[in-house]
Amino acid sequence: MGFKQDVYCIEKGLDPASAEIQRIIKKHHTATEQLQNATQAVYIAMAQLYQEYPEFRKQLDPFHPQLAEFMAQAMRIFADQNL
After folding, report:
1. pLDDT by residue (tens digit) across 26-48?
2. Distance from C-alpha of 26 to C-alpha of 75, rounded to nearest angstrom
3. 8 with 68: CB under 8 angstroms?
4. How far apart are CA 39 and CA 78, in angstroms?
5. Termini Cα distance of the chain
């Protein structure tokens, strides 16, 4: 999964709760569901990993230094509102 859309939205100054970001996150959740049962608890835990686990940050930081934090926030919002 690429992160170009997410980076574009960060650079555009969009809020992680914006409809545009939440559409992107919905696609991310759908892709995640193909690998595991991404319940609310699982998806929130995954968001925490994106934000806190150094190996995830190593993968995300090259795209944009704020990507991990931004994704984590957007994923939590998605989980709270949709799962």
Report:
1. 999 999 999 889 999 999 999 99
2. 9
3. no
4. 11
5. 21
For 70, the token pair is 């931004």
> In Å, how far are 42, 56 from 74, measured between CA atoms?
14, 16
CA distance 69 to 16: 10
Query: Where do we find the tokens 């960060």?
Result: 10
- One DSSP character per residue, 1-68 reads ---HHHHHHHHHT--TTSHHHHHHHHHHHHHHHTTS---HHHHHHHHHHHHH-HHHHHHHTTT-TTHH
Q: How many domains does the chain have?
A: 1
**What domain range includes position 54?**
4-82
Mean pLDDT, residues 5-31: 94
pTM: 0.90
